[in-house]
Design brief:
226 residues, two-stranded antiparallel sheet, 4 strands, 4% strand
């Protein structure tokens, strides 16, 4: 879990179309969604215009990009910049941008099952900004330029402290993997050998190399499940 958090807090740098991108942020996502950029629209089919626009936005801070987008000559400026790029593979650069977006959008694994709550009406992006500024004392600038993955960690981390959700730890993930493996094999002799791993608190999931000659009786292992 800590490794995932650090990757969100200090994202790997990306350079696409000769532009060094800043960490993908809440503000970037807001701007790209506002202009219906196909890279962040579900089911979107990105074009060259989507690619150059996204690189243009994500190579700047939110404030600088917002100012630039108000320039009446913006379209001509982007076209002039794109015209000096030389030949390149659209497929390759689009894949690189998608990798940048995915890497910058990794928040924690969250479980909110069992929590009594109604579906909020406000957009998710807005709710995150509200928590960052209203509960965690981010300034507007800090919130909009916060790496999106880190914003997700801060948002869900806050609600975990409030008791509204639970973040999955590495131990939780291993227990889930073990439970899944048991469900898949519980009808076999191999499945019965996994039971002691849960009873004894052993989290390392390893399939036994050999199978027993017969299925051990239920009382052959001390049970602490109850």
């Amino acid at each position: 879990m800590e490794r995932d958090y650090l990757a969100a807090a200090l994202p790997e740098p990306f350079t696409i179309l000769g532009q060094r991108l800043t960490p993908f942020s809440l503000g970037h996502l807001l701007l790209l969604r506002r202009f219906e950029n196909a890279f962040v629209v579900p089911g979107g089919k990105p074009t060259l215009d989507d690619l150059t626009f996204a690189v243009f936005v994500c190579s700047q801070t939110y404030e600088d990009a917002e100012v630039a987008l108000k320039d009446p000559d913006l379209h001509q400026q982007i076209e002039a910049w794109a015209g000096h790029l030389g030949p390149f593979s659209f497929t390759e650069k689009a894949a690189a941008l998608e990798s940048y977006l995915v890497a910058g959008s990794q928040g924690p694994d969250v479980n909110d099952s069992g929590q009594a709550h109604r579906q909020p009406g406000a957009p998710f992006i807005h709710r995150i900004r509200m928590v960052l500024q209203g509960r965690l004392n981010y300034s507007f600038t800090d919130a909009m330029n916060c790496p999106w993955g880190l914003a997700l960690w801060d948002y869900f981390g806050f609600w975990e402290m409030e008791g509204a959700v639970k973040l999955f730890s590495e131990e939780d993930a291993e227990r889930i993997a073990l439970a899944k493996l048991m469900r898949e094999t519980i009808g076999t002799e191999e499945g019965w050998q996994l039971l002691p791993m849960l009873r004894d608190g052993e989290l390392r999931v390893e399939r036994p190399e050999g199978r027993p000659d017969s299925i051990p009786p239920l009382n052959s292992q001390p049970s602490t499940l109850n």
